[in-house]
Amino acid sequence: MSDAPLASAIVTGAGSGIGRAIARALLAAGFGVTLAGRRSAPLRETAAVDGAPHTDGLIVETDITDRAQVERLLGRHVERFGRLDVLVNNAGVFGPNADIGDLAPSEWESTLAVNLTGAMLCAGAAFRQMRSQSPAGGRIINNGSISAQTPRPRSVAYTTTKHAIAGLTKSIELDGRPHRITATQLDIGNARTELIDRLVADGALQADGSRRQEPTMDATHVADFVVQLARMPLEVSVPQLTVTATGMPFIGRG
Questions:
Q1: Res 230: pLDDT
Q2: Rounded to whole angstroms, how far apart are CA atoms 223 and 220?
Q3: Which domain holds residue 76?
Q4: pLDDT tens string 241-253
Q5: What digits encode the pLDDT tens for the residues 159-191?
Q6: Which residues pair with 116 in a beta bridge?
Q7: Would residue 29 count as lying in a domain?
Q8: Residue 100's pLDDT is what?
Q9: Is 153 helix (H, G, I), strand (E, B) or coil?
Q10: Which stretch of DSSP H or E encloses residue 87?
Q11: Which superkingdom does the taxonomy of this entry point to (predicted)?
């Protein structure tokens, strides 16, 4: 085993978007980071510094809907870094653009598989590892999205999974108390990513049926919050945190 940094983290969905920004910020902050995603090439790009792999980055191709692959991810991480301090449960898909009447069962199932079952599998594996580290514990950060609070139109599958993430996070926080494991639901609104760029390119659909351009913010600002959470002592719990682009239609959405 190589010399371990003071703290280590796993970031799922680290090959692009918010996950990429978070993984890079944690590496820059001195964390040992395992970058998880379906494809290794984007993960290598995330972890590169001046074209060379970051010395404290570990790349593990992982399909988070596959329990065996998730267990392998945790095993590889612990083998490299010795322990797990932070899980950033970030991987997710937006799912179909459909209301409940038009939603195909196959699209519903595929969205739940990634956004909910995948998050549960990763959180469960992380919980078991953190519990074994007693009394040290650890911190689990779940990407909830502001859709965990207020939905967009025609996003029933995505919105349902994100509401479920709220229950998952609260349950982890409660069950983790004896083991010094804390959980945070991080609800993000309009961080600039390829997904958001596609969503708002022609104006985002509003509740009244109109479309409008919406403000966005740099994903690095979200990453800054995650680094602050990761650095907090486990005596501090942050059950829920909302960060949005200023002026986006969230407060007062309707």
A1: 97
A2: 5
A3: 8-244
A4: 999 999 888 876 6
A5: 999 999 999 999 999 999 999 999 999 999 999
A6: none
A7: yes
A8: 97
A9: coil
A10: strand 86-89
A11: Bacteria
For residue 223, give both structure tokens.
């990453």
CA distances from 102 to 16, 195, 199, 211 (A): 29, 22, 19, 20
Whole-number Å distance between alpha carbons of 38 and 146: 25
Instruction: Establish if 3 belongs to a structural domain.
Output: no
**Domain presence at residue 82:** yes
How many structural domains does the chain have?
1
Confidence category of residue 25, pLDDT binned at 50, 70, 90? very high
pLDDT tens digits along 35-85: 999 999 999 999 998 788 899 999 999 999 999 999 999 999 999 999 999
27 DSSP β-pair partners = none
- Domain presence at residue 57: yes
Q: How far apart are the first and last CA of the chain?
A: 54
Take residue 164 and report the two structure tokens written for it: 């479920």
* CATH classification of the domain holding 103: 3.40.50.720
Active-site residues, by number, are 158, 162
> Tokens at residue 201, please?
């390119």
